[in-house]
Sequence to fold (269 residues):
Amino acid sequence: MKFEDFVCFEATVPEFEAADRDGAIAELVSSLNKAGKLGESNSKAITRAVIKRENEASTGMGKGVAVPHVNHKAVKDVVAAVGQSQAGIDFSALDKQPVYTVILLISPVNEPDKHLQAMENIFRNLQYEKFRRFLRQCRSAEQIEDLLREVDEGSSLL
Amino acid sequence: MKEWARDPRMNAEKNSLENVVCEAVVEIKNADGIHMRPAMQFVDIANRYKSNITVSNNETQVDGKSIMQMSILAATCGTKLKIKAEGSDAQEVIEMLRELIEDKMFGEPAP
Fold:
Protein backbone atom coordinates (compact mmCIF):
# COMPACT_ATOMS: atom_id res chain seq x y z
CA MET A 1 0.00 0.00 0.00
CA LYS A 2 1.23 3.51 -0.86
CA PHE A 3 0.70 6.78 0.98
CA GLU A 4 -1.58 8.08 -1.78
CA ASP A 5 -3.81 5.03 -1.31
CA PHE A 6 -4.85 6.12 2.16
CA VAL A 7 -3.54 9.59 3.04
CA CYS A 8 -6.07 12.38 2.48
CA PHE A 9 -3.75 15.20 1.37
CA GLU A 10 -6.64 17.66 1.52
CA ALA A 11 -6.88 17.09 5.28
CA THR A 12 -3.24 17.87 6.11
CA VAL A 13 -2.72 20.18 9.08
CA PRO A 14 0.65 21.87 8.34
CA GLU A 15 0.82 23.42 11.80
CA PHE A 16 -1.43 22.50 14.70
CA GLU A 17 -3.20 25.30 16.52
CA ALA A 18 -3.45 23.05 19.54
CA ALA A 19 -0.42 22.56 21.77
CA ASP A 20 -1.65 19.33 23.35
CA ARG A 21 -2.29 15.77 22.24
CA ASP A 22 -6.08 15.75 22.43
CA GLY A 23 -6.34 19.07 20.62
CA ALA A 24 -4.09 17.85 17.81
CA ILE A 25 -6.15 14.67 17.42
CA ALA A 26 -9.37 16.73 17.32
CA GLU A 27 -7.92 18.99 14.59
CA LEU A 28 -6.98 16.02 12.41
CA VAL A 29 -10.38 14.34 12.83
CA SER A 30 -12.17 17.59 12.08
CA SER A 31 -9.96 18.12 9.03
CA LEU A 32 -10.81 14.64 7.70
CA ASN A 33 -14.47 15.39 8.32
CA LYS A 34 -14.28 18.66 6.37
CA ALA A 35 -12.64 16.78 3.53
CA GLY A 36 -15.72 14.53 3.48
CA LYS A 37 -13.90 11.37 4.52
CA LEU A 38 -15.97 10.50 7.57
CA GLY A 39 -19.45 10.41 6.02
CA GLU A 40 -22.27 11.24 8.39
CA SER A 41 -20.32 10.25 11.47
CA ASN A 42 -19.86 12.57 14.37
CA SER A 43 -16.31 14.00 14.55
CA LYS A 44 -16.55 14.36 18.30
CA ALA A 45 -17.40 10.68 18.76
CA ILE A 46 -14.46 9.64 16.56
CA THR A 47 -12.12 12.02 18.38
CA ARG A 48 -13.21 10.51 21.70
CA ALA A 49 -12.61 6.99 20.35
CA VAL A 50 -9.08 7.90 19.18
CA ILE A 51 -8.26 9.53 22.53
CA LYS A 52 -9.63 6.53 24.43
CA ARG A 53 -7.32 4.26 22.40
CA GLU A 54 -4.40 6.63 22.96
CA ASN A 55 -5.02 6.56 26.72
CA GLU A 56 -4.76 2.76 26.74
CA ALA A 57 -1.24 2.90 25.26
CA SER A 58 0.58 5.74 23.55
CA THR A 59 1.04 5.42 19.80
CA GLY A 60 4.08 7.69 20.12
CA MET A 61 6.59 5.12 18.93
CA GLY A 62 9.52 7.40 19.44
CA LYS A 63 11.66 9.49 17.09
CA GLY A 64 9.19 12.39 17.10
CA VAL A 65 6.28 10.60 15.48
CA ALA A 66 2.90 9.37 16.74
CA VAL A 67 0.34 7.31 14.88
CA PRO A 68 -2.97 7.57 16.76
CA HIS A 69 -5.55 5.24 15.25
CA VAL A 70 -8.91 3.60 15.68
CA ASN A 71 -11.20 1.23 13.81
CA HIS A 72 -14.49 2.93 13.00
CA LYS A 73 -17.58 2.24 10.96
CA ALA A 74 -17.39 5.79 9.53
CA VAL A 75 -14.92 4.59 6.89
CA LYS A 76 -14.99 1.85 4.26
CA ASP A 77 -11.30 2.19 3.48
CA VAL A 78 -8.30 3.16 5.57
CA VAL A 79 -7.96 6.93 5.67
CA ALA A 80 -5.19 9.03 7.21
CA ALA A 81 -4.35 12.67 7.82
CA VAL A 82 -0.95 14.14 8.61
CA GLY A 83 -0.37 17.02 11.01
CA GLN A 84 2.75 18.77 12.26
CA SER A 85 3.89 20.79 15.23
CA GLN A 86 7.04 22.90 15.20
CA ALA A 87 7.10 23.18 18.97
CA GLY A 88 6.42 19.51 19.58
CA ILE A 89 3.54 17.90 21.47
CA ASP A 90 3.64 15.66 24.50
CA PHE A 91 2.22 12.29 23.40
CA SER A 92 3.64 10.32 26.33
CA ALA A 93 5.85 8.74 23.69
CA LEU A 94 7.89 5.62 24.42
CA ASP A 95 11.13 7.61 24.31
CA LYS A 96 9.55 10.44 26.39
CA GLN A 97 10.40 12.91 23.61
CA PRO A 98 7.99 15.41 22.01
CA VAL A 99 6.12 14.49 18.85
CA TYR A 100 6.51 16.69 15.76
CA THR A 101 4.58 14.63 13.23
CA VAL A 102 1.18 13.05 13.90
CA ILE A 103 -0.35 10.59 11.44
CA LEU A 104 -3.98 9.89 12.33
CA LEU A 105 -5.29 6.64 10.88
CA ILE A 106 -8.96 5.62 10.77
CA SER A 107 -9.46 2.02 9.66
CA PRO A 108 -12.66 0.21 8.73
CA VAL A 109 -14.12 -2.34 11.11
CA ASN A 110 -13.50 -5.97 10.09
CA GLU A 111 -10.69 -5.19 7.64
CA PRO A 112 -7.65 -5.85 9.84
CA ASP A 113 -5.35 -6.62 6.91
CA LYS A 114 -5.83 -3.19 5.31
CA HIS A 115 -4.97 -1.53 8.61
CA LEU A 116 -1.77 -3.60 8.88
CA GLN A 117 -0.76 -2.69 5.32
CA ALA A 118 -1.18 1.03 5.98
CA MET A 119 0.84 0.72 9.19
CA GLU A 120 3.50 -1.23 7.32
CA ASN A 121 3.90 1.59 4.84
CA ILE A 122 4.04 4.25 7.56
CA PHE A 123 6.60 2.48 9.73
CA ARG A 124 8.75 1.24 6.85
CA ASN A 125 9.29 4.85 5.80
CA LEU A 126 9.59 6.21 9.33
CA GLN A 127 12.59 3.92 9.77
CA TYR A 128 14.58 6.34 7.66
CA GLU A 129 16.06 9.27 9.50
CA LYS A 130 16.06 11.27 6.24
CA PHE A 131 12.36 10.73 5.75
CA ARG A 132 11.56 11.88 9.28
CA ARG A 133 13.79 14.92 8.86
CA PHE A 134 12.31 15.91 5.47
CA LEU A 135 8.80 15.44 6.85
CA ARG A 136 9.55 17.64 9.81
CA GLN A 137 10.98 20.33 7.52
CA CYS A 138 7.74 20.55 5.51
CA ARG A 139 5.93 23.83 6.12
CA SER A 140 2.83 23.39 3.97
CA ALA A 141 0.29 20.76 2.97
CA GLU A 142 1.72 20.88 -0.58
CA GLN A 143 5.23 20.08 0.63
CA ILE A 144 3.94 17.12 2.61
CA GLU A 145 1.98 15.84 -0.37
CA ASP A 146 5.02 16.20 -2.64
CA LEU A 147 7.24 14.33 -0.20
CA LEU A 148 4.80 11.45 0.29
CA ARG A 149 4.18 11.14 -3.46
CA GLU A 150 7.92 11.10 -4.11
CA VAL A 151 8.31 8.29 -1.62
CA ASP A 152 5.43 6.43 -3.30
CA GLU A 153 7.22 6.68 -6.61
CA GLY A 154 10.24 5.06 -5.03
CA SER A 155 12.48 8.07 -5.43
CA SER A 156 16.11 7.76 -4.42
CA LEU A 157 15.35 10.24 -1.65
CA LEU A 158 15.73 7.72 1.13
CA MET B 1 16.49 -34.79 25.79
CA LYS B 2 15.13 -31.42 26.79
CA GLU B 3 11.49 -30.57 26.28
CA TRP B 4 12.07 -27.94 23.59
CA ALA B 5 14.25 -30.21 21.52
CA ARG B 6 11.43 -32.70 21.04
CA ASP B 7 9.22 -30.03 19.49
CA PRO B 8 9.71 -30.44 15.71
CA ARG B 9 9.05 -26.70 15.16
CA MET B 10 12.05 -25.77 17.21
CA ASN B 11 15.58 -26.33 16.27
CA ALA B 12 18.30 -25.33 18.65
CA GLU B 13 21.99 -25.59 18.33
CA LYS B 14 24.43 -25.09 21.13
CA ASN B 15 27.63 -23.52 19.89
CA SER B 16 29.18 -22.97 23.25
CA LEU B 17 28.07 -22.64 26.83
CA GLU B 18 26.85 -19.08 26.28
CA ASN B 19 25.83 -18.84 22.65
CA VAL B 20 22.68 -20.80 21.88
CA VAL B 21 20.81 -20.37 18.62
CA CYS B 22 17.15 -21.29 18.69
CA GLU B 23 14.52 -20.93 15.98
CA ALA B 24 10.79 -21.49 15.73
CA VAL B 25 8.20 -21.02 13.02
CA VAL B 26 4.95 -19.67 14.43
CA GLU B 27 1.58 -18.91 12.90
CA ILE B 28 -0.43 -15.80 13.71
CA LYS B 29 -3.85 -16.94 14.95
CA ASN B 30 -5.64 -13.85 16.24
CA ALA B 31 -7.98 -12.22 13.72
CA ASP B 32 -6.38 -8.77 13.70
CA GLY B 33 -2.78 -9.96 13.27
CA ILE B 34 0.21 -8.15 14.73
CA HIS B 35 -1.13 -4.62 15.02
CA MET B 36 0.38 -2.18 17.48
CA ARG B 37 -0.83 -3.71 20.74
CA PRO B 38 0.33 -7.27 19.96
CA ALA B 39 3.59 -5.86 18.62
CA MET B 40 4.11 -4.13 21.96
CA GLN B 41 3.43 -7.34 23.88
CA PHE B 42 5.95 -9.13 21.69
CA VAL B 43 8.63 -6.47 22.10
CA ASP B 44 8.00 -6.30 25.86
CA ILE B 45 8.80 -9.99 26.25
CA ALA B 46 11.70 -9.88 23.79
CA ASN B 47 13.34 -7.06 25.73
CA ARG B 48 13.27 -9.01 28.97
CA TYR B 49 15.89 -11.38 27.53
CA LYS B 50 19.53 -10.94 26.65
CA SER B 51 19.37 -12.86 23.38
CA ASN B 52 19.32 -11.08 20.03
CA ILE B 53 15.99 -11.74 18.36
CA THR B 54 15.17 -11.49 14.69
CA VAL B 55 11.77 -12.11 13.14
CA SER B 56 11.20 -12.75 9.47
CA ASN B 57 8.48 -13.43 6.93
CA ASN B 58 9.35 -14.41 3.37
CA GLU B 59 10.40 -10.89 2.43
CA THR B 60 11.62 -9.02 5.45
CA GLN B 61 13.75 -9.64 8.50
CA VAL B 62 13.40 -7.30 11.47
CA ASP B 63 14.67 -6.76 15.00
CA GLY B 64 12.23 -8.42 17.40
CA LYS B 65 13.02 -5.86 20.08
CA SER B 66 11.87 -2.86 18.01
CA ILE B 67 8.20 -1.92 17.97
CA MET B 68 8.56 0.05 14.72
CA GLN B 69 10.31 -2.82 12.99
CA MET B 70 7.78 -5.38 14.19
CA SER B 71 5.04 -3.21 12.65
CA ILE B 72 6.76 -3.48 9.27
CA LEU B 73 6.03 -7.21 9.14
CA ALA B 74 2.29 -6.46 8.70
CA ALA B 75 1.73 -10.01 9.92
CA THR B 76 -1.91 -10.84 9.20
CA CYS B 77 -3.85 -13.76 10.63
CA GLY B 78 -2.49 -16.95 9.06
CA THR B 79 0.97 -15.49 8.43
CA LYS B 80 3.90 -17.69 9.39
CA LEU B 81 6.88 -16.00 10.98
CA LYS B 82 10.31 -17.35 11.72
CA ILE B 83 11.66 -16.23 15.07
CA LYS B 84 15.36 -16.65 15.73
CA ALA B 85 17.07 -16.01 19.04
CA GLU B 86 20.79 -16.04 19.75
CA GLY B 87 22.18 -15.90 23.25
CA SER B 88 22.33 -17.74 26.54
CA ASP B 89 18.55 -17.49 27.12
CA ALA B 90 17.51 -18.19 23.51
CA GLN B 91 15.43 -21.27 24.30
CA GLU B 92 13.40 -19.57 27.00
CA VAL B 93 12.58 -16.49 24.99
CA ILE B 94 11.57 -18.50 21.93
CA GLU B 95 9.19 -20.56 24.05
CA MET B 96 7.69 -17.44 25.67
CA LEU B 97 7.16 -15.76 22.29
CA ARG B 98 5.67 -18.89 20.74
CA GLU B 99 3.27 -19.17 23.66
CA LEU B 100 2.26 -15.49 23.31
CA ILE B 101 1.53 -15.84 19.60
CA GLU B 102 0.05 -19.32 19.28
CA ASP B 103 -1.39 -20.24 22.69
CA LYS B 104 -2.37 -16.87 24.17
CA MET B 105 -3.02 -15.30 20.75
CA PHE B 106 -2.06 -11.95 22.31
CA GLY B 107 -5.24 -12.21 24.40
CA GLU B 108 -7.31 -11.55 21.27
CA PRO B 109 -10.08 -13.49 19.49
CA ALA B 110 -9.57 -15.86 16.57
CA PRO B 111 -11.35 -14.99 13.28
User: Anything to note?
Assistant: Residues 90-103 of chain B form the longest helix (14 residues). The longest strand of chain B covers residues 20-27.
